[in-house]
Specification:
The chain is 34% helix and 23% strand. With 416 residues, the chain is an alpha+beta fold. The two termini are 19 Å apart. The relative contact order is 0.19.
Amino acid sequence: MNSPMGNLLINHERLWDSIMEMAKIGPGVAGGNNRQTLTDDDAKGRDLFKSWCEQAGMTLGVDRMGTMFATRKGVDPEALPVYVGSHLDTQPTGGKYDGVLGVLGALEIIRTLNDLNIRTKHPIVVTNWTNEEGTRFAPPMLASGVFAGMHDEQWAYDREDIEGKKFGDELVRIGWQGDEVVGNRKMHAFFELHIEQGPILEAENKDIGVVTHGQGLSWTQVTITGKDSHTGSTPMPMRRNAGLGMARILELVDEIAWSHKPDAVGAAGHIEVFPNSRNVIPGKVVFTVDFRSPELAVIKDMENRLRNGGEEICQKMDLEIAFEKVGGFDPVKFDEDCVSAVRKAAERLGYSHRNIISGAGHDACWINRVAPTAMIMCPCVDGLSHNEAEEISVEWAAKGTNVLFHAVVDTAIVVN
């Protein structure tokens, strides 16, 4: 438990001021942020982050996906770097902390090391991954996915937003396409700090979530086809109501998720109804079922039961049904040594903590495939995220970043 770091702490006021300064770029309409990836505001946020990194004495590299890597040199030129960071892009109605805390908390580590004149054996690289949110260009975690070999670079460049603009073209337009080959960087380890985006830590009055696993995700798009007809003049026995079929399948989705409690979840967030008229029985519906679990076998079971149950429901209702797997990734088990470094840091600092499973996808989930990785979570008010009302306290931000500070620097090894 002994460490040359002792109980050293980051400058929490400077961290908070930086978060608030970044929040001025791409303000939302209700106190949060709308700084979607590869927009002009994203470029402005990148420029500000770049200036802070340069002021901290770091050198900046940018890869062909636009991911930013700011390096503080280590004493040993042969030692692989310890990477730390998250993302600066937001949802259209996003909060000020989702992703941003992880990037600026990483920057605060460097600033604090500089203040204390502490050197490390391994270099430390502060990272801003491009397009983590995936709200403008699907899928999420796009740049880290290319880095980890999950996506092809040209495929990523060809992703289009709702206006038909391509990711690659927009990356060039805002001036942030680098020349580094994506994925060529080798990592000693990667750490990511993030708000929980769930209610557990606050409800249990825990300072720190030690993230041991990331939930796997399965997105299945379901299309049900019946027959449009008049709501008033079509007898009940003669209806082919696609909307009613969807309702019964959504009940099934809820039942399936509950059968794998407490860690599995399931719902449909994306729903389209056609023709979507007040006096027309829906003849077609399209919706996406989102299943998540930290166990791959559970995800497979939920997928199979959705397909079998959905077909049975629609057959009885004289409806047609089609399924398409439109996204997903396997569950993640984070590196035991990195997770241990996080847990030891929380214990050393006297912070209450618990193991936790990440219910959302993060860049760390892809990077875990190519380097030892761990995540740290801090509470957020009411578990609210992807919402402009997202909120954390200065204390929560400070404690999360202090744990990040100790875990990263212990892994990078202090040199006297």
